[in-house]
Structure formats: C-alpha cells, structure tokens
C-alpha cells in the first residue's frame, strides 16, 4: 500500500507546529494516497522514526518521503537520509522513494510578490528589496536565493535587490540591514523566504521595527505560509515522489536547466 511521509523542520515555537500541521492537512487533501503522515526532523514530535513506523504498522509497502524544505541543503542531503536509514533497517521490505524540495519556482516568486503587495505600500522603481534566506553552508542555497532575487527584480521592475541570510551564509541579515541604512532608498521591503513563523521571524520583526523607529521607511513582508500556491507546490512534490523511483541516496543535480528549477 502506498504511503506518504512529509518531513518538516520542526520548531520550539508551538504556533509554528500548529501552522505546519494545518498546512499539511491542506496538502494531504490534494494528494490521492490512502496513508499520509507528518513528521519533524527536530524540536517537535512525532520524529521521522515515529512517523515511518506508524505508516508501516498501517500496512504501507511503499513510502514516498517528501521533504518540507524550500532548498536542497544539509537537511535534505544528510539529516533526513540518515534518519531514514536508521528506521529502514527495521522495515527492509518497504520501498522508499525520496522527493524534492520546492526549489525555485515561478509560482513561489509570485507568492513573494503577493506578500509585498499585502503591505499596502506602492513599489516604486527606486524601492529596495532585501530577500532574506534561512542560510546554509551549501552553495546551492545562495545560488537559488540569488536566482529568486533576480526573478523578483525583473517582475517588479525595481533597480535594487540584495540578498542576505539568517544563518551559515554571508552576508548576514544584520549586514543586510546595515547596507539598507547606508543606501537610503525611498522604501525598503524586507522579504523573508521562510515557510512558517518561528524564532527567526520574531527576531526579524524586532530588528526591522528598530530601524523603523530610527526613521527608515521599511516594511517586513509576510512569510510564505499557507498561500494556495505553496500548498499546490508541495502537493505536486508529493505526487512526484509517489510516482518516482528515485532513492534516498541519489542526487538530482542543481543546475538552473534541471527540471526542478521551474
């Protein structure tokens, strides 16, 4: 029997877990598979082993593992496969396929544009966009983030777009904000490329508010959240994982010309 295991990052913030579970419920309604469970990589329960075991006990013979990740980085290549390898030893007859992160998609760029417009502010040509990624040691993360920034710049027709990161990559978010202070644009839109709320989002809100109190015209846009296009994107990844023969140890490749850069 076919099953799907969605693996989300996890957070200490209860609101983040609630958001994630509600989001998964919306996704599961779009995926025609009899057995579906959500697990967390860290900081929340159930973990991967618990989610996998629950599906196995319900009669799953094939499990499509769907990473609830925006980018292909350490969690995708190392952490999730390591946890799957451990639990798979207990269920050697279950076939496991491994899905893809969302990657760079035009519909996700459009979600970011929606979040900008939701601030209620006009986006003049001299506006500045600061795209904020979570960050990773993987070069793919910066490659993907820069591509998203490039698409935003083209679609909105603005002159200035920069990228920065909340962890593990440079420039840091603090460095990005310092550059905002120096450039003095008519308005700056800080655009978090984050899936759910959490401690990182809370920290961003504090720092943006501090700049606003210093007299800068700056807006913090909403995170991706449960936008219908994001729900559809993950549902599509789940269907692809179900139909795939792609194993956990294989690599998809990262060039812009590859299929997942859509």
UniProtKB/TrEMBL annotation:
Molecular function per GO: lyase activity; metal ion binding
Name the domain of life.
Bacteria
Entry keyword set:
Lyase, Metal-binding
Name-wise, this protein is: Sirohydrochlorin ferrochelatase
What is the organism of origin for this protein?
Alkalicoccus daliensis
Taxon lineage: Bacteria, Bacillati, Bacillota, Bacilli, Bacillales
């Amino acid at each position: 029997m076919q099953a799907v295991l969605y693996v989300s990052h996890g957070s200490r913030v209860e609101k983040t877990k609630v958001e994630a579970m509600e989001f998964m419920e919306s996704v599961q309604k779009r995926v025609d598979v009899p057995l579906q469970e959500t697990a967390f990589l860290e900081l929340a329960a159930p973990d991967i082993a618990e989610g996998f075991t629950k599906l196995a006990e319900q009669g799953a013979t094939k499990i499509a593992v769907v990473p609830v990740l925006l980018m292909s980085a350490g969690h995708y290549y190392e952490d999730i496969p390591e946890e799957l390898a451990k639990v798979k030893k207990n269920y050697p007859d279950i076939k496991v396929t491994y899905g893809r992160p969302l990657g760079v998609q035009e519909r996700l760029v459009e979600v970011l544009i929606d979040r900008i417009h939701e601030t209620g502010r006009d986006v003049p040509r001299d506006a500045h966009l600061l795209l904020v990624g979570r960050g990773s040691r993987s070069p793919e993360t910066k490659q993907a983030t820069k591509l998203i920034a490039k698409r935003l710049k083209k679609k909105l027709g603005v002159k200035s777009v920069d990228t920065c990161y909340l962890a593990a990559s440079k420039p840091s978010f603090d460095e990005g904000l310092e550059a905002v202070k120096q450039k003095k644009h008519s308005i700056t839109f800080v655009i978090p490329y984050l899936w759910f709320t959490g401690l990182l989002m809370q920290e961003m809100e504090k720092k943006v508010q501090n700049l606003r109190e210093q007299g800068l015209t700056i807006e913090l846009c909403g995170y991706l959240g449960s936008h219908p296009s994001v729900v559809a994107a993950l549902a599509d990844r789940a269907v692809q994982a179900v139909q795939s023969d792609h194993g956990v140890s294989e690599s998809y490749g990262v060039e812009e010309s590859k299929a997942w850069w859509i």
